[in-house]
């Protein structure tokens, strides 16, 4: 892309370009829609967001079954049951099919909150907040499907002996941590993934993304950086474009020759890098100029260049060099050296006499002309 597009468009605009152009997609949408703490960029996944919105409607139907539209749906689709166990039927409407799609998400987090325990089936309903799926999973002896949670409560407290007779010691300890109402208020359905127990689109979206992440392989290594690492990266006090570049480098999404070769966009997978090191004296006259050209079959900047960094530190110590950052416009010598090193297969250096071009650029850096 050339001309005004290259100068005026942002990075995303330059990479997007026109619809008829071909582009390289470095990461799939599932990865980009992950949160920044998970290694993504936090773009909203529309499929997951739509599911979370549908689940919101299902939640309204669940907590307010006596609403007019709820009574109509109940009369048509589940006259003898409830929304959580209703069947799709042979000729479902688009509305009903959509609600059932949202219900699949609701079922991942809807559970009973114990009040007096009279409305909750001890064996067949979700009510244990510390279990992976909220069910009792380790019955020890004969049990009746009609047992309610209240059958295991005595005088406002858990019947410890009866619990340990019917379920494992581990699950019994889980149940004993659940508080029981001392005023006898009724049991109620809550959304487990919200502190207030109320379903929200935000909490539903997070759960939908989590489900998609576990069911769809993202194709990344199991050695991905931790969420703590990504939090540090995104909170570095630098410009956003630098943070984005760090994300691209760590996610292996930079257009190196190796990556381009893997996508059949480069005839060679050799990655090259060039560095120009310019040493000046106290009055800014050239003392040393070192150009280094590197080629590697498996280069992953910046950590693969550790040897170069160590060499530079040794030179600095031995020659009492102090480093400072200077922008390209005021340091044309270093830019000229790096550019020429990049086009050369061998490094080069000067410490006595310098090429005329280099001397001229040094004067320009010194006097700003």
UniProtKB/TrEMBL annotation:
This is Reverse transcriptase. The keyword Acetylation does not apply. Keywords: Nucleotidyltransferase, RNA-directed DNA polymerase, Transferase. Pfam families: RVT_3 (PF13456), zf-RVT (PF13966). One of its GO terms (molecular function) is RNA-directed DNA polymerase activity. Residues 223-266 form the Reverse transcriptase zinc-binding domain. Residues 305-341 form the RNase H type-1 domain. The keyword DNA repair does not apply. It comes from the Eukaryota. InterPro entries: RNaseH_domain (IPR002156), RVT-Znf (IPR026960).
């Amino acid at each position: 892309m050339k001309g005004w597009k290259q100068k005026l468009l942002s990075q995303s605009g330059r990479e997007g370009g026109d619809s008829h152009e071909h582009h390289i997609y470095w990461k799939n949408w599932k990865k980009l829609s992950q949160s920044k703490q998970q290694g993504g960029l936090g773009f909203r996944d529309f499929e997951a967001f739509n599911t979370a919105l549908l689940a919101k409607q299902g939640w309204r139907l669940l907590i307010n079954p006596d609403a007019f539209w709820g009574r109509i749906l109940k009369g048509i689709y589940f006259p003898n049951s409830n929304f959580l166990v209703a069947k799709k039927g042979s000729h479902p409407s688009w509305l009903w099919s959509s609600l059932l799609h949202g219900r699949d998400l609701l079922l991942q987090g809807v559970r009973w909150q114990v009040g007096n325990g009279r409305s909750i089936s001890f064996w067949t309903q979700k009510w244990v907040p510390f279990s992976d799926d909220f069910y009792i999973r380790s019955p020890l002896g004969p049990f009746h499907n009609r047992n309610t949670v209240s059958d295991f409560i005595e005088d406002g407290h858990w019947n410890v002996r009866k619990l340990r007779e019917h379920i494992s010691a581990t699950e019994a300890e889980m149940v004993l941590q659940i508080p029981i109402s001392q005023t006898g208020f009724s049991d109620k359905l809550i959304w487990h993934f919200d502190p207030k127990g109320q379903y929200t689109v935000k909490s539903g979206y997070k759960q939908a993304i989590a489900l998609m992440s576990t069911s769809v392989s993202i194709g990344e290594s199991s050695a991905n950086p931790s969420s703590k690492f990504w939090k540090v990266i995104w909170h570095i006090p630098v410009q956003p474009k630098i943070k984005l570049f760090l994300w691209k480098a760590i996610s292996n999404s930079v257009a190196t020759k190796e990556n381009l070769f893997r996508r059949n966009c480069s005839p060679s997978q050799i990655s090259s890098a060039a560095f120009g090191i310019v040493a000046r004296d106290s009055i800014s006259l050239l003392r040393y100029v070192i150009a280094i050209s590197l080629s590697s079959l498996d280069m992953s900047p910046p950590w693969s260049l550790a040897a170069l960094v160590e060499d530079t530190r040794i030179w600095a110590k031995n020659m009492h060099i102090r480093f400072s950052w200077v922008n390209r416009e005021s340091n044309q010598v270093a830019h000229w050296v790096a550019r020429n090193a990049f086009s050369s297969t061998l490094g080069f250096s000067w410490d006595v006499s310098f090429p005329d071009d280099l001397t001229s650029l040094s004067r320009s850096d010194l006097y700003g002309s």
